[in-house]
Amino acid sequence: MHLRVILSRGHAVGHAPCHVSVIPMPDHLLSVSSHQARAALVRESSFPEYPGELGMIPPRVAEFCLSREDVCRIYAQQVARL
C-alpha cells in the first residue's frame, strides 16, 4: 500500500476516540487473508491450551487482539458468518 493511501485512511479516522497504529507487514505475510488471521485469533482465544497458527500475525498485534475480549467477540462473530 502506498504511503499516500495509508495517510489518507489515517486522516479519514479523524478525531475518533481511538489510537491507530500502522504496522508494516513482513513480505512473507502479505498473502495471509484477514479472514485467516481472524480465524486463527478466534481459535487461540477459544482454546489457548492448543497453540495455533498465530505465527501469521505479528506478535504485538496478536497480543493486543487476544487481550481484548471485545475484539475476540467481534472476530468470532465475523468468522462464524463467513
Structural class: mainly alpha
> Average pLDDT value?
79
Number of helices: 4
Shape call:
globular
Name the poorly predicted regions: none
Radius of gyration based on Cα positions: 14 Å
Largest sheet: none
Name the beta content range. under 5%
Order of helices and strands: HHHH
Distance between the termini: 25 Å
Description:
With 82 residues, this protein is an all-alpha fold. It has a domain at 26-81. It is built from 4 helices and no strands. The longest helix is centred in the middle third of the chain and has 13 residues, at 34-46. The relative contact order is 0.13. The model has no long low-confidence stretch (mean pLDDT 79).
At a glance:
The protein is an all-alpha fold and 82 residues long.
Secondary structure layout plus pairing:
Blueprint: H1 3-13, H2 34-46, H3 59-67, H4 69-81
Helix pairs in contact: 2-4
Which features would summarize this protein structure in a list?
82 residues, globular, mainly alpha
